[in-house]
Amino acid sequence: MKNPNRAFKDAIYEQFARIGKAVSSPKRLELLDILCQGPRTVEVLAKELSLTVANASQHLQILRTARLVETEKEGLFVIYRLADQAVCEFFLAMRVLAESRLAEVEQIKRQFLEGREGMEPVNREALLELVREGAVTVLDVRPAEEYNAGHIAGAISLPLKELERHFSDLPRDQEIVAYCRGPYCVLSIQAVEMLRAKGFKAVRIEEGIQDFRAMGFPIVVNEEV
Amino acid sequence: MKNPNRAFKDAIYEQFARIGKAVSSPKRLELLDILCQGPRTVEVLAKELSLTVANASQHLQILRTARLVETEKEGLFVIYRLADQAVCEFFLAMRVLAESRLAEVEQIKRQFLEGREGMEPVNREALLELVREGAVTVLDVRPAEEYNAGHIAGAISLPLKELERHFSDLPRDQEIVAYCRGPYCVLSIQAVEMLRAKGFKAVRIEEGIQDFRAMGFPIVVNEEV
DNA sequence: CTATTATTCAATAAATAAATTGAATAATTA
DNA sequence: TAATTATTCAATTTATTTATTGAATAATAG
Which tens digits make up the pLDDT trace of B118-137? Predict the structure, then answer.
């Protein structure tokens, strides 16, 4: 070893790599993405990712070893949550980097949305402005608990599962903008398809709640029951 | 497969994981850190990390596959550089996250600096303010090429290797603040030790050139020769 | 053309990580 | 207390990653 500082540097970068290793698995990234939305039990996470519970538990423990998530035992359940909001911001930064550096991401997305109406990349800035002004009906199509945990001020909660039962509550003259968890969540895609099939003027906005938060949109949190 | 969108999500998160895998090795993180300072040849990078050239080349190719770095052939040499300044910012974000989440980082650093004078965590804000005001002599102890590629406005270039020959150029009445590549670069540590041994009032500032840039310090770039 | 030099490639062995399976643990309910 | 449920543990197989080595390639200089 020529350089006497090698051991120090090795030790430091090995620590940095703990974070890197934690985010080097697609499954763990998806877990982080969901945990950005709020705390979840192992069971719920496993189901969301179509993993066995044991496998999900293992991945979660790796995230915990890297101190990116924390746990709390509540009765029979173990609730996992992000250790810090900074972890969510880091995940978002990584997503943005992947989107900007890897053309494949855009390609996979385009391929998935191909042929579906209302999903074409709209003029995002203009749409965001309309949302800001309240000039459109903003629909939060995530499950009610997630809406309660935090939603865009002025947005209406209408979980995808209940959409069919509430068509009559929605305006036919005004544009409807649906959002969900983010660009890779399909809830808003399905919602817009259903709405369009019924003749509504609906469009999807890719941004998820964390993106809106990062952009400084006012977020409303409902009281816990 | 219960969920028909699984394939889409798997494809997306697999792309994200390409970035994660690229930054999951300590060696590749160190390579990125150095490349944040500027372009380098394979040979130089290999030497800096005490790696074989073949091994360094392999790591660099992995970074290139993840589109984090780019290459350019110049004569016999292949020059690697970051593909985008955003990659440097991402690396810094990862470093900050590791520092905040992993207590081990601070511990390793403390252990390394133990017993050395001038390295105690000084009042950073106050010191930065002095640097900003030009109330202290600011020493850039990196190699001259790196100084030329970008340095804090007002800083004097005095590479560690030439320090001994230029003691007489330095003020004995004013405080000297040395900086280098960042908190895990040892150049400024060695410089401060040498200066103190000669009776100068020298302190180290942990921040590296990329940190100063991120903090909005004015950076001066010398004309290429 | 030959020699030199920087880099990459290819093959291998060793280490590490991933998913699967079934058993073990811990908290709760009947 | 026994049964149930959510989670973790441990063992295994399979796949991936890492470092090492020596050969191959490509650009340049003699």
Answer: 676 666 778 888 888 878 99
Q: How far is CA B179 from the centre of its chain?
A: 10
Q: In the CATH scheme, what architecture does the domain B115-220 have? A: 3-Layer(aba) Sandwich (3.40)
| CATH code for the domain defined by B6-87 | 1.10.10.10
Domain boundaries, chain B: 6-87, 115-220
Is B91:B84 a contact under the CB 8 Å cutoff?
no
**Which residues in 73-112 of chain B line strand C, with CB less than 7 A from it?**
76-79
Q: Is B181 helix (H, G, I), strand (E, B) or coil?
A: coil
Residue with tokens 């968890």: A181
Q: What ipTM was predicted for this assembly?
A: 0.92
**Catalytic residue flag (residue B180):** yes
Q: What is the DSSP letter of A198?
A: T
Quick check: A102 and B8 CB within 8 A? Answer: no
CA distance A15 to chain B (A): 7
What CA–CA distance (Å, rounded) separates A156 from B90? 35
pLDDT tens digits, residue range A81-114? 999 999 999 999 999 999 999 999 999 999 998 8
Within 8 A of B67 by CB-CB distance, chain A residues are 101-102
Nearest to B102 among A6, A67, A105 (CB): A67
Q: Which single residue has its CA nearest the C1' atom of nucleotide D16?
A: B21
Q: Quick: pLDDT tens for B138-181.
A: 999 999 999 999 999 989 999 988 999 999 999 998 999 999 99
